[in-house]
Amino acid sequence: MLLESLIPVALLVAGVLLCLTLIYIVHQHKDKGESPFFLMLIVSTLIWSLGYVFEIVFSDEKLMILSAKAEYLGIAFIPVAWFSFCSAYTGRFNRLVKTKLFYILVIVPLITTFLAFTNEYHGLIWAKIEFSNIGMYRVLSPIHGLWFWVHVVYSHLLLITGNVLIIGNAILLPSVYRKRSILIVSAALLPWIANIGYLSKTTEFDPTPLAFVASAFLLLWGVYRYRLVEIIPIARNVVVENLDDAVVVIDNNHVIVDMNPAAERFLALPKDKVIGSKAVEVFIECPEALKLYNSETKVSRRVCIKRGKRGVKKYYDIKVLPISDKSKNILGRLVVVHDVTDIKRAEEYARKQRKKLKLLNERLEEKVAERTKEIEKLLKQKNEFINQLGHDLKTPLTPLLSLLPVIEEKESDPDLKRLLGVVLRNARYMKNLVVDTLNLAKLNLPNLEFNLGSINLRDVIEDSLRDNEHIISKGNVNVENLVDDVYVKADRLRVKEVLTNLITNSVKFTPEGGRIVLYTESAGDEVKVCIEDNGMGLEEEQREKIFDEFYKVDESRHNVDSSGLGLTICKRIIEKHGGRIWAESEGVGKGTRICFTLPVWDDEGEE
């Protein structure tokens, strides 16, 4: 008899210890969404259990009543904790339990707790407090007041809603999760069975707190065995249910046990008609999926299926993944069907476009080759024409240029002598024009090659100054060569042609007594060469056009015997060397500086 009397207390004490263990374990998973509510549930159960232990153990009626009041710190909040846990676990009513709206749920529990501690003033929780004996223990057997039943209705609404959520979720889980489902349903039903027994007066001893402890224990078991707290079913509901890919779960008996909405659309069959059916009966239009089914590893294949009455071709990537337990035993297969029709069509379109593009490129290459031949032919004809024209023009000019100076010298008539001078000057201009035109035509040839080597700029400049000494003396200008021994990679004759052109050009446009300076500057892997004078100078617009073919700056310069191609030829020669050429001037009357660059020769002095 004594042993039987100790059993309730022993169970309650065991429940208290179990609650403390649960609190510690759940605290380790506090980062999980539903863990705070699970913790709230266990703490509330712990308070109820402790209060009930003291209610049974104490013999003093006042202490028993105080213990019963303290129990409401747990009793009143258990329904809210259970409902919140179920909501967070299943992903339902998240807005209610994870926002400030949660505080609405605890209004009734707070009122209930307050009324319990002040019951002697109103009797809304216990209208009358009586005591009864259970074995060696004396317990409260109160007649409940009005608010108690309000609390009961509110609590049962929350508990029922939570149970519906948790049981409904368990039912929806695939059969491979059947053990987990049984565990969840058992945890949900235990407190109900115990509470119904107590309210129906089947027993004076209230087993409800123990039932909640047992329920929490089952969930604790789930933490270790099935990882209920870590793997939230909402992951399955939200992710799988909203996938665009069809997902079908098939067990080892080839029976379909689960599928998502996308699979319903793929199979064109409602879920309730597919679940429980043989896979061979459902995948009639897609036998390839069944061929992959028996593989023990992940396999995939792209298939083409004709869909609908019109037999429209659709392309799918089918993957079959084995579902195994921890012992590597295959429990079934997961069939994932991904519609790649748009991708396939895009690939086909891209392939056709690539084919068209390749054909267009081939035609374009043919056209370019044809036009290139035509252009080369025209260029050849142009060069032949220019050469022939130059020969035809130079032939009559040669004797004319030889005889005119002799005739001019012997002629005594001033007017006739003046006319002969004009003819001689125009003949020389014509000769220069022909020579420069032929030279420019040769420079424009794409296959023209220069005789590149190491040249000393100082030597080339001195040669150019000696060759043009008579022009410099006639112009009465001072020329300074400040260039030291600098070696560049260039064609000596072509560079000398550039220097001669630039020096004579500066002499022509520098007034008597003027000054011309030649100098160089190092610019990394290049050498900058400059010819600077204090002559007529240039405007900005003139600086930009000075290297254009046949360009002459102004009327005063038109009187100078020039073809207008000298600087253009210089530009072509420098560019053929990979360099640059440009003009600088601060304005009219402030002199001009012509600069160009040439590549440095790596091994100095070597030809």
The H-level CATH homologous superfamily of the largest domain, spelled out, is Rhodopsin 7-helix transmembrane proteins
Structural class by helix and strand composition? alpha+beta
Main β-sheet, spatial strand arrangement: 6-5-9-8-7
Number of helices: 23
The CATH architecture assignment of the largest domain turns out to be Up-down Bundle
Task: Determine and state the CATH class of the largest domain.
Answer: Mainly Alpha
Describe the structure in your own words.
57% of the residues lie in helices and 16% in strands. The chain is an alpha+beta fold. The chain folds into 4 domains: 2-234, Rhodopsin 7-helix transmembrane proteins (Rhopdopsin 7-helix transmembrane proteins), CATH 1.20.1070; 243-339, Beta-Lactamase; 351-443, Helix Hairpins, CATH 1.10.287; 453-599, Heat Shock Protein 90 (2-Layer Sandwich), CATH 3.30.565.10. The strands form 5 sheets. Strands 6-5-9-8-7 form a 5-stranded antiparallel sheet.
Short summary:
This protein is an alpha+beta fold. The protein is built from 23 helices and 16 strands.
Topology:
Blueprint: H1 2-28, H2 35-57, H3 61-75, H4 78-90, H5 94-97, H6 102-105, H7 107-117, E1 126-128, E2 131-134, E3 137-140, E4 143-144, H8 146-172, H9 178-199, H10 208-225, H11 233-240, E5 246-251, E6 256-259, H12 261-267, H13 271-274, H14 279-282, H15 287-291, E7 299-307, E8 312-324, E9 330-339, H16 341-410, H17 414-443, E10 453-456, H18 457-467, H19 469-475, E11 478-481, E12 487-490, H20 492-508, E13 515-523, E14 526-533, H21 540-545, H22 555-558, H23 566-576, E15 581-584, E16 592-599
Parallel strand pairs: 11-13
Antiparallel strand pairs: 1-4, 2-3, 5-6, 5-9, 7-8, 8-9, 10-12, 13-14, 14-16, 15-16
Helix pairs in contact: 1-2, 1-10, 2-3, 2-4, 2-10, 3-7, 4-8, 7-8, 8-9, 9-10, 16-17, 17-23, 18-20, 20-23
